[in-house]
């Protein structure tokens, strides 16, 4: 059997039309100006690659290309690599696709949160605390103003928190910061390094100190789980992966889906923080239902603020799980 | 002056064929904890190179996956050491960063050499013969100066880099030459700046007219400020979207238009609009398909870039082929000392 091929001698760019055939354990290459016999064991027969010509490399730098892939496979049976078999079959590559999707899904659902949790544990407290100072300094210039609560009131609340019995000492906040914000309404949140920020409007909205303590315990649940830090790590990992993957000039576009994907994590964190708060409330002889009452009030206030600002319909991006579900769980405890 | 004959480059790769290669690469890379990624890179490069055809012949890639793996391990080790140190030992991290920065030009030269030595066309290899000393000027000093000058010297630095890489590249016995001066680079960035200014002025006029006719709500006396804000925002978004494809297209056209190989010349005629449309639709499709469109996007972009490049062959095609010979030193000693290391990720 003779196979048409193109030969390059490696010293000149000229293409020589040649034919190939086997002579025992030798390959015979014949053309108008060239004849060569090489032991097959001395040749580098490259595995197939899609529809590209098959390539044989000679030890002296010469090369030979065969466009007839089927003919080549008949001449050199067994030169197919296993990888090439996978690449050329829709069935195997489809299986690879399913495997990759399953692995990517598992990595996102379990691997990433686990890695972020482990990493968050290793980040030194001073580093996280310095991060808090930066975040606060940044926010102070923009949305925060100094608290309008009396120093006595603030000290009283701080003392109340210091007295609390906690199920996990890691939940004790590094510091409690009081701020006033016209834009943010009644709110409280935990920063990555364990600082809890309380806005004046939240203190004013609460009926009594028990309700404030309930919300603060929820935030301390975030502190205990290092949720803010983990969330930050997860979001930056997803953002980085997207930016790298999409590449080119699309860093800005990559940020949007990363944000959407991250919304889900915080729901798990909210549930964790609720559980911590419920345990702590019981330990301090406050009914967990007080947190539910406060959540309801916050939700109403937030809804009012949202309706006024944006109109409804942005609920999909909300980082809080549907409050009804949380309220029911808290009331049942 | 000999006559030049245009020889377009063709790209025969297909998205569906490359998709299978790509997904098998991804799957095996994950399954082997990244080790296969070096072999994957060779398969991918071979796919793109062999489908790139000029005058009836394809290119080829010969990189040794083990060398690529070695390069990746070194890069990963440096990066991991830096990341770990930066959170626990800032002094050590600074030291590692300095080490990375000082090593970078040397590594870049090594990988340029690796890439070009491992690229062939018609059985002849390309080569890179840049020396290390000038590489430190080009890849370290100039970018540093460009940074210190707040980017004012960046086009200059870019011109130095292109001149260094092209002037030290060869195909067989023929050497590449690069003739563009820094002025041409400044021209491209000035045009981008002009586009921004024109866009800003246009938006300014538009918003002023619309605002004064009550198209959007604005308080008395605030119209200028509001128009300024809207125009600045629009210009920012416009440049963010358009500047990258514009600069990419113009730079590629400039670089190829100023490159010669012996008596042969090159012409690239990429259009910024087409490139923008291509990149934008690629990003949208990649996002919508959760990343599965990526191999198709890669193929589309490669096809566009390759098929908008032509070689202007001096004399006849037969003369062209007959004139291409292996370099005197290409086969012997240089190959022997060829450093098998590729840092490029």
Automatic annotation (TrEMBL), chain A:
The keyword Metal-binding applies. InterPro entries: DUF7092, Mito/Outer_Membr_Metalloprot, Peptidase_M48. Residues 153-332 form the Peptidase M48 domain. Residues 312-333 are annotated as: Disordered. The chain crosses the membrane at residues 92-112. Its cofactor is Zn(2+). Residues 322-333 have a biased composition (Basic and acidic residues). Residues 3-77 form the DUF7092 domain. Binds 1 zinc ion per subunit. The keyword Hydrolase applies. It comes from the Bacteria. Keywords: Hydrolase, Membrane, Metal-binding, Metalloprotease, Protease, Transmembrane, Transmembrane helix, Zinc. Belongs to the peptidase M48 family. This is M48 family metallopeptidase. It comes from Methylomonas aurea.
From TrEMBL, chain B:
Keywords: Membrane, Transmembrane, Transmembrane helix. It comes from the Bacteria. The chain crosses the membrane at residues 19-40, 67-85, 91-112, 133-157, 186-211, 223-246, 266-293. The keyword Hydrolase does not apply. The keyword Transmembrane helix applies. This is YjgN family protein. It comes from Methylomonas aurea.
């Amino acid at each position: 059997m003779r196979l048409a091929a193109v030969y390059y001698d490696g010293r000149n760019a000229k293409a020589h039309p040649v034919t190939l055939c086997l002579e025992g354990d030798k390959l015979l290459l014949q053309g108008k100006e060239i004849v060569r016999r090489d032991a097959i064991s001395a040749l580098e027969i490259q595995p197939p690659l899609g529809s590209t010509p098959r390539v044989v490399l000679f030890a002296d730098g010469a090369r030979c290309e065969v466009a007839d892939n089927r003919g080549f496979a008949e001449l050199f049976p067994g030169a197919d690599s296993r990888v090439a078999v996978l690449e050329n079959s829709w069935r195997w590559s489809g299986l690879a696709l399913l495997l990759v999707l399953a692995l990517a899904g598992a990595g996102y659902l379990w691997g990433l949160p686990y890695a972020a949790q482990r990493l968050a544990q290793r980040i030194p407290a001073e580093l996280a605390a310095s991060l808090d100072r930066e975040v606060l300094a940044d926010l102070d210039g923009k949305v925060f103003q100094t608290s309008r609560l009396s120093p006595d009131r603030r000290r009283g609340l701080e003392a109340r928190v210091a007295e609390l019995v906690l199920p996990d000492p890691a939940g004790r906040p590094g510091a409690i910061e009081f701020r006033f914000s016209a834009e943010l309404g009644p709110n409280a949140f935990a920063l990555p390094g364990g600082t809890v920020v309380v806005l004046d409007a939240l203190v004013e909205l609460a009926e009594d100190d028990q309700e404030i303590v309930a919300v603060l315990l929820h935030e301390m649940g975030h502190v205990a789980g290092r949720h803010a830090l983990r969330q930050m790590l997860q979001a930056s990992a997803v953002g980085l992966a997207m930016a790298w993957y999409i590449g080119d000039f699309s860093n800005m576009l990559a940020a949007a889906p990363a944000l959407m994907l991250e919304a889900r994590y915080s729901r798990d964190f909210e549930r964790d923080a609720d559980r911590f708060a419920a345990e702590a409330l019981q330990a301090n002889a406050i009914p967990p239902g007080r947190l539910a009452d406060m959540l309801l009030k916050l939700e109403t206030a937030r809804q009012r603020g949202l309706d006024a600002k944006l109109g409804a319909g942005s609920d999909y991006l909300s980082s809080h799980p549907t409050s009804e579900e949380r309220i029911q769980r808290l009331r049942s405890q | 002056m000999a006559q030049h004959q245009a020889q377009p480059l063709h790209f025969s790769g297909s998205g569906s064929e490359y998709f299978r290669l790509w997904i098998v690469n991804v799957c095996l890379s994950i399954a082997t904890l990244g080790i296969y990624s070096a072999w994957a890179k060779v398969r991918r490069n071979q796919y793109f190179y062999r489908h790139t055809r000029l005058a009836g012949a394809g290119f080829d890639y010969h990189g040794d996956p083990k060398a690529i793996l070695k390069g990746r391990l070194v890069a990963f080790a440096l990066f991991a050491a830096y990341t770990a140190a930066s959170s626990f030992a800032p002094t050590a991290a600074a030291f590692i960063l300095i080490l990375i920065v000082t090593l970078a030009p040397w590594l870049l030269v090594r990988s340029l050499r690796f890439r070009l030595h491992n690229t062939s066309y018609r059985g002849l290899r390309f080569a890179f013969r840049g020396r290390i000393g000038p590489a430190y000027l080009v890849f370290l000093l100039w970018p540093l100066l460009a940074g210190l000058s707040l980017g004012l010297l960046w086009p200059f630095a870019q011109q130095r880099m292109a001149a260094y890489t092209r002037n030290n590249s060869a195909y067989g016995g023929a050497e590449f030459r690069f003739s563009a001066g820094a002025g041409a680079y400044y021209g491209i960035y000035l045009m981008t700046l002009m586009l921004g200014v024109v866009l800003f002025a246009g938006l300014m006029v538009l918003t002023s007219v619309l605002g004064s006719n009550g198209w959007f709500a604005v308080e008395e006396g605030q119209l200028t400020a509001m128009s300024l804000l809207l125009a600045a925002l629009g210009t920012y978004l416009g440049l963010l979207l358009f500047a990258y494809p514009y600069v990419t297209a113009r730079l590629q056209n400039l670089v190829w238009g100023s490159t010669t190989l012996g008596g042969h010349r090159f012409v690239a005629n990429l259009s910024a609009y087409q490139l923008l449309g291509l990149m934008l639709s690629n990003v949208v499709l990649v996002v919508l398909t959760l990343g599965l469109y990526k191999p198709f996007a890669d193929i589309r972009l490669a096809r566009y870039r390759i098929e908008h490049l032509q070689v202007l062959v001096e004399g006849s095609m037969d003369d062209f082929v007959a004139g291409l010979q292996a370099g005197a030193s290409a086969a012997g000693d240089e190959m022997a000392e060829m450093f098998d290391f590729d840092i490029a990720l």
